Amino acid sequence: MATLFKNIKELIQVRNEPISFVSGKEMNRLPTIKDAYLIVENGLISDFGSMDNCPEIKADIIDATGKMMLPTWCDSHTHIVYAGNREGEFVDRINGLSYEDIAKRGGGILNSAKKLQETSEEALYEQSRMRLEEIMQLGTGAVEIKSGYGLTKDAELKMLRVIKRLKENYPLEIKATFLGAHAVPKAYENNKKGYLNMLIDEVIPKVAQENLADYIDIFCETGYFSVEDTELILEAGRAYGLVPKIHVNQFTAIGGVQAGVKFNALSVDHLEEMRDEDIKVLLNTGTMPVALPSCSYFLSIPYTPARKMIDAGLPLALATDYNPGSTPSGNMNFVISTACIKMKMTPEEAINAATINGAYAMGVEKEVGSITKGKYANLILTKPINSYGFMPYAFGANQIEKVFIKGKEMKYE
Ligand code: NIG
Ligand code: FE
């Protein structure tokens, strides 16, 4: 049976012709239909338009008077498969240590890796599925999930198998990224090359053989992995068809953006430190820049210079970076608010960045990210609100009444 949503106050992000992403000035245009209807059939958007033309059909009817409808958020950068939390380090940072100080004394990513290695696959799945259900309730209808807290062959494969199981058990789009080169593990202290070789010779072939990842990632950063290491890993991934989506320019700009563009990365993420040459090299490429404002908020580091990038003509996507160390939050609504408040993005730019551009940044723009006939009916229905600008404005509150994935309402305890 079809579902007909009637009297939608405003239907947002309507794209009659499918698009891949929006850049520059186009980011400030968010097409909508006021007083609209939308029909869902077999999990897909089959029709929509103005209430003046609403057809008489046999369907389950949902009256959306006073409410807005928009496509669900596409969170193209997360690490939601992890074990335990790091509240201890949170307090250490309040007391004056920096993120880098904590990593240097063996905390940070290595702390999470130790916990994950000691956690059974079943327990890891349980913790992860709770985070997934949490973010779906917050309006996320497509998510990319990375490995990178295993740092051994077994533990990395364990993480990727958990992602695969989430994919099998939940209706939203999930993409998996292999991030074995997230940090150099203790066992390879002072032998970074040895660790990279192990990843290249033993882990990447297995990941590819078992079809456990779509993308490949590396933490290209001073004190972690160099540009040279990055090119080595991206080259190895390329041989197995793994497309790059990489961590660059979080604390220092060392040429990671250039390496990403050179290897046709689907996205380059973080970008808190951007030089003019980093902006320039991204122009007119297929590589999507991705900003993670909740990470800047939590670590008190600079925000990605969105204004400068968009004004230069670039596209931009927004994602959460949900992880235990730098962003223990998967709330895309907070990301959008923070992008408007701290990065001076308009609500139109932020919504485009969190829907169609986010979809592109994880390779699902043909399936989701806009209100387009034939795309999945992954929909947010808001509470009664005056305008879509109220969503970023009323930061920290939840304006979402219902979330639908493939036309079905998602409800979790
Ligand atoms: O994207 N920067 C690298 N990786 C994560 C944080 C890792 C951690 O602290 O656990 C990030 O911010
Ligand atoms: Fe990250």
Notable features of this structure?
alpha/beta, binds fe (iii) ion, binds N-(iminomethyl)-L-glutamic acid, single chain, eight-stranded mixed β-sheet, eight-stranded parallel β-sheet, 413 residues
Description:
There is one protein chain. The chain is of the alpha/beta class. The chain is built from 15 helices and 16 strands. Strands 1, 2, 3, 4, 5, 14, 15 and 16 form an eight-stranded mixed sheet that branches. The protein has an eight-stranded parallel sheet with strand order 6-7-8-9-10-11-12-13. N-(iminomethyl)-L-glutamic acid binds near residues 108 and 247.
Overall pLDDT: 97
How much of the sequence lies in strands comes to 15-25%
Largest sheet: 8 strands, mixed
Number of helices: 15
Helical fraction: 25-40%
Low-confidence spans: none
Number of strands: 16
Distance between the termini: 26 Å
Name every ligand kind in the structure.
N-(iminomethyl)-L-glutamic acid, fe (iii) ion
Computed structural class: alpha/beta
- Shape assignment: globular
